[in-house]
Amino acid sequence: MPFVGLVVAIAAAAAAVVGWLARPLAVDPKRRQALSGAVAAVDRELAANLELMTMFDQTRQAVVLENAEFARHRETIEQEAGGIVSTVTTLYARIPQAEAAMERRGPANSLRDEDRRLIEGWEGDAREAQRTLRRSLDARPARGWSAVTARLRSWSPRR
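Now predict its structure.
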C-alpha cells in the first residue's frame, strides 16, 4: 500500500507542476510595444506599396515598391510573432517579380495575362499580409501546452 501512496503523490506533484507551467505567459510591455511599432511600420509600407500599385493600374507606368521597413523590423516580427513572418517574407521576396511584370509592357502599355495575374496576386497577398500582421497584435499570451513548451525552451541551455 505505501507504494500506491507514493505513486499517487508523484502523480499529484507532476500534475501540480504541469498546472503551474501551463499558466499564461506574461507579456513583456517593452516587447509588445516593439512588436506594435514593427507591425505599424510594415503595415504603412504595405499600404504605400498598394497605393503605388493603384497608380500603376491607372497609368501603366512601372513603379518601384518599398521594402526598407520590413528589412528593418524583420527580426522583431520573427521574435515576437514568428508564425506570420513566413507569409510576409514570401510577399517581400516576390517584389522583384512584380516590378519586372510591371516593366514588361506591350503595345499601348498592354500587359500579358500572366503578368497581370502576377501583379494582381501580389496585391491580394499584400492585403492578406496586412490583415495577418494586424491580427498578430490581437494574439493572446500562450496558455496550456504551448506555455509549458515555451517555458521549457526558455530554460534549456543555449547552443
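The chain has a mean pLDDT of 86.
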